[in-house]
């Protein structure tokens, strides 16, 4: 099969197109082999390319294999089931079009075939085409009337979070830069703040206090105290968990993680009676079914920033690396 692989960590030039890569094989009874049609490109792919999280992921991989390279990235996909393990339920059928996610420690979907556990795959909702189906699952969440500020409402995670929160009847305030405001408007948020406009800096405080601030803009836990906003919970998708282990090794890195999270919470609890949490992508069938339900009820429509052909994968990585995205970057294998 054809697949994008890396043989060492580094920049986008490390991505190599293998023309005769080995088709992955099912090794557990609960796995399926999927022929990929589209695959999302996420900031985590660009980060893993430069070695982000390598020590912990290598440990996780060694549970099944001791080979680190070549690695294939790509965490979400749509495709067709071509083979089922003996233990896979009738819920999934050969020939069925599905969408799914791949855990970080597994070989990814930027290749023509991927093997995944049945618990991370379901039938693709009919409401989505295959490009849209690769733009939802690598982001997920009684929120009625809760006041939520989304930092980075224009990005891949933020634009989905805004729609999920609105479906849950939350009051949503989204921040983005000025050129993204029309797109964020279409998400149905209640109020938009242009974070690049200095005159709107008061608006963040005026729209609060917030039940929840969701950091989808790479602010990290320091964002909780930086601006003096009032909130009960600050949840960041940019936690230092893997970076601490990369920089300090497994034991000291994990100790630093405990210390970092404790320090952030001591500060916010003492000044705001509020807490800071780290959010992580965890593949789950319940989460996928929940998102499928929102798509079927037309409460969730993925925003697509751009679509690249399979041979253009390095361009797609470059686009994600450059940032300022307006939704998801997707690789379409048939483009
Ligand atoms: N922990 C996990 O498992 C997990 C899972 C998915 C994503 N993530 C992380 O979550 C973050 C968002 O991911 P993503 O895929 O949504 O990235 P993305 O598509 O690049 O979106 C980030 C968005 O934030 C905007 N932005 C940047 N600085 C901002 C600021 N100060 N205030 C408001 N908006 C700002 C950017 O647009 P402009 O710069 O043009 O304003 C962009 O639209 C990334 O840091 C990613 O690594 C973590």
Architecture overview:
InterPro entries: ADH-like_N, ER, GroES-like_sf, NAD(P)-bd_dom_sf, RTN4IP1, YIM1/Zinc_Alcohol_DH_Fams. The chain has 335 residues and is an alpha/beta fold. The protein has 2 domains: 3-137 and 283-332, Medium-chain alcohol dehydrogenases, catalytic domain (Quinone Oxidoreductase, Chain A, domain 1, Alpha-Beta Complex); 147-278, NAD(P)-binding Rossmann-like Domain (Rossmann fold). The chain has 10 helices and 15 strands. Strands 3, 4, 5, 6, 7, 14 and 15 form a 7-stranded mixed beta sheet that branches. The chain has a 6-stranded parallel beta sheet with strand order 10-9-8-11-12-13, sandwiched between helices. Strands 1-2 form a two-stranded antiparallel sheet. Strand 9, helix 5 (181-185) and strand 10 (191-194) form a beta-alpha-beta unit. The longest helix is centred in the last third of the chain and has 32 residues, at 241-272. The chain binds NADP nicotinamide-adenine-dinucleotide phosphate (NAP). Residues 42-44, 138-139, 151-152, 154-158, 175-177, 180, 195, 216-218, 237-238, 279-281, 323-325 line the site of NADP nicotinamide-adenine-dinucleotide phosphate (NAP). NADP nicotinamide-adenine-dinucleotide phosphate (NAP) is lined by residues 42-44, 138-139, 151-152, 154-158, 175-177, 180, 195, 216-218, 237-238, 279-281, 323-325.
Instruction: Give the bound compounds.
Output: NADP nicotinamide-adenine-dinucleotide phosphate
- Count of alpha/pi helices: 10
How many domains is the backbone divided into? 2
Q: Specify the CATH homologous superfamily of the largest domain.
A: Medium-chain alcohol dehydrogenases, catalytic domain
* Rg, nearest Å: 20 Å
Count of β-strands: 15
The best one-word shape is globular
Tell me roughly what share of residues is in helical segments: 25-40%
Largest sheet data: 7 strands, mixed
User: Which CATH architecture of the largest domain?
Assistant: Alpha-Beta Complex
Strand content: 15-25%
Average pLDDT number: 93
Distance between the termini: 17 Å
Assign the structural class, choosing from mainly alpha, mainly beta, alpha/beta, alpha+beta, or little secondary structure: alpha/beta
Helix-strand pattern, N to C? EEEHHEEEEHEHEHEHEHEHEHEHE
Low-confidence stretches: none
Instruction: Find the CATH topology of the largest domain.
Output: Quinone Oxidoreductase, Chain A, domain 1
Organism: Hermetia illucens (Black soldier fly)
GO molecular function: oxidoreductase activity
InterPro entries: ADH-like_N, ER, GroES-like_sf, NAD(P)-bd_dom_sf, RTN4IP1, YIM1/Zinc_Alcohol_DH_Fams
Domain Enoyl reductase (ER): 10-331
